[in-house]
Design goal:
By secondary structure, the protein is of the alpha+beta class. It is 31% helix and 35% strand. The longest helix is centred in the first third of the chain and has 18 residues, at 19-36. The chain is globular and about 40 Å long. The protein starts with a helix and ends with a strand.
């Protein structure tokens, strides 16, 4: 999260990413697991950490997010496909939403998944493009 290439597409990431911020972040994400029974995962390839992502409940919707290290950007499609397959198999998730900052210009991967842009949303004072993918 401290990498400039990653941070440029994360408008909610403000301030320095240090150990204290990382611990608060992990605690917050673990609380979602406790609350919803589902949350974010760490992604490993050959035992090496390449990023994190997963599902987070936003109201009545399950939002999927993925953050990869720059040297793992090419793994996004494969990881996302496995996550979407998980959502399709999970009866709690009739559809998935994706919130992307307007700085993200290459949206072809979402189109190939079958996601449709449904508008813009304000999230913590920042504008995001909202997409929806039916899973049922």
């Amino acid at each position: 999260m401290s990498n400039a290439r990653v941070a440029e597409h994360m408008p909610l990431l403000t301030g320095a990413w240090d150990t204290e911020m990382a611990l608060k972040f992990v605690k917050m994400k673990e609380a979602y697991w406790a609350r919803d029974g589902l949350g974010h995962w760490a992604f490993l390839v050959d035992g090496e950490y390449v990023g994190w992502g997963g599902f987070q409940k936003e109201g009545d919707e399950w939002d999927f997010g993925l953050v990869l290290r720059p040297d793992a950007f090419g793994l996004g499609r494969r990881i996302s496909r496995k996550a979407i397959d998980f959502a399709i198999a999970d009866d709690r998730i009739p559809f998935v939403t994706f919130l992307l900052p307007p700085s993200r210009k290459n949206l072809g991967a979402l189109e190939r998944l079958g996601a449709v842009q449904v508008g813009d949303v304000d999230y913590d004072g920042e504008r995001f493009l909202k997409f929806r993918l039916e899973t049922k």
